[in-house]
Amino acid sequence: MTSIDVLNTAESWATSGRAVAIATVVETWGSAPRPVGSHLVIDSDGNFEGSVSGGCVEGAVVSEAIDVIGTGKSTMLEFGVADETAWQVGLSCGGRIRVYVEPVEISRP
Q1: Helix, strand or coil for residue 41?
Q2: Sign of the dihedral through C-alpha 76, 81, 84, 86
Q3: Among 16, 27, 51, 76, which is most buried by a count of CB atoms within 10 Å?
Q4: How many CB atoms within 10 Å of residue 92?
Q5: What value, to the nearest 5°, has the Cα angle with vertex 28 and ends 23 and 32?
Q6: Cα–Cα–Cα angle for 68, 74, 76, nearest 5°?
Q7: 48: which strand partners?
Q8: Considering just the CA atoms, what is the radius of gyration of the chain in Å?
Q9: What span, in angstroms and rounded, lies between the C-alpha atoms of 83 and 87?
Q10: Alpha-carbon distance 33 to 35, whole Å?
Q11: How is the chain split into domains, by residue range?
Q12: CA nearest 101: which of 71, 70, 61?
């Protein structure tokens, strides 16, 4: 699924009334499995499309995204082998990634 497809999914879900957040890879170090600009769209039920890490940290990102949807406040997440989450989630290929998670709001005329 391309980033355009993920963004179209986010728009479609939001315009249909679903509460949605989008996660975007904003920085990578080392051998991160997805490039900067990769997206994951998540709804408040935990459904998601896209990928920010090839399956390495998607579960943690989905959990955080549900919190972002609930609070309406964006957050920056960082994952890698050298941080406190290394035993909970990790990038199998090493490296580190930063993922920005923000709520999606659709303006209606």
Answers
A1: strand
A2: positive
A3: 51
A4: 12
A5: 90
A6: 105
A7: 42
A8: 13
A9: 9
A10: 7
A11: 3-104
A12: 61
